[in-house]
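Researcher: Here's my situation. A collaborator sent me these components and asked whether they could plausibly form a single complex. I don't have experimental data yet, so a predicted model of the whole assembly would be a useful starting point for our discussion.
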Amino acid sequence: MSAVWLCVIIVGMATIAIKAGGPVLAAGRELPEGAARVLDLLAPALLAALVATQALASDEALVLDERAAGLFSGGAAILLRAPLLVVVLVAAATAGGLRAIS
Amino acid sequence: MTEARYRDGMRVMLPLMPAIVAFGASFGVLAKAAGVDSLAALVMSATTFAGSAQFAVVSVLGAGGTAAAAIGAAVLLNGRYAPMALAASGAFRGGPVRRLLEAQLLVDESWALSSREGGFDRKLLLGAGALLYLGWNAGTAIGVLAGDSLTDPATLGLDAAFPALFLALLAPLLRTGGARGERGAPSRGSAPRSADRAPLAAALIGAGIALTLTPITPAGVPVIAATAACLVGLTRRRRPRARHRLAQETSS
């Protein structure tokens, strides 16, 4: 088997198992109260980590580039309670515009 | 609040579709450039359905890396889905096979969108996930077929759409203290909520962990490690007592 297909099959099976593990094994069980309280905070913790890494990380380095500018203007749109479409468009237009003129 | 439908999950994800399709297409283009044949790229998008891990595999292979290195990077990147899927496990129904299949529609965007206080909204997650799945796979097919004639999505700034999306999904969690308010519902004028700072603390610590680890660990590890920030939830019980003591001090 080629390295490519080896990767496709193993990564695919691993990802399916990673996603299905919790939902299949915890089926029909209530999580303990402490665990539920901790897992409630998973969303803010992970979302903030995704925001930070997707705006500032490039491979294994921190960089300040057009994505950060896009995030900044998107953040301003969020503060103004703009709809999601506007937030996403403002961020993309800022980053794309800056790249076009640089 | 009316019950969310599958359609609502799709509707909220619509603004993101151009970016999803464009990145699916760029995955198809990069995969072919890295020597991954079209069928393998299509099968990968259909089964793995996780952008960052798929990009990691083709970039490692394209740079001459081994299959083991590519697989290791991809599994690290997707490791975050284990705690995310566990947290959302109440959203899935049926026997093991159905739960396994439904859980495949969990990706960052559908998970974040369906997060609610005390659980996840099943229909929002599955509706959003299904639309994202269609867009990602259609995009991959476009990329594989059209090849190099496509514009790099970064030129259009589409890479900046994702952090902005996640920030937009994060903001309501911080405003209402852990509970995701109804979209667009004004938080002003409603009954005063207890100001729960735990979500803000978890967000700041999570971002801090991720940024600190980015230069010193392989990609994927920073986001997985950031999940540790949710342990601040263990301190929440003590808060009412602390506030009580403060109230006594200020009144005396």
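Model: Some features of this prediction you could bring to your collaborator: Helices of chain A lie at 3-25, 33-40, 42-56, 66-79, 84-101. Chain A touches chain B through 76 residues (CB under 8 Å).
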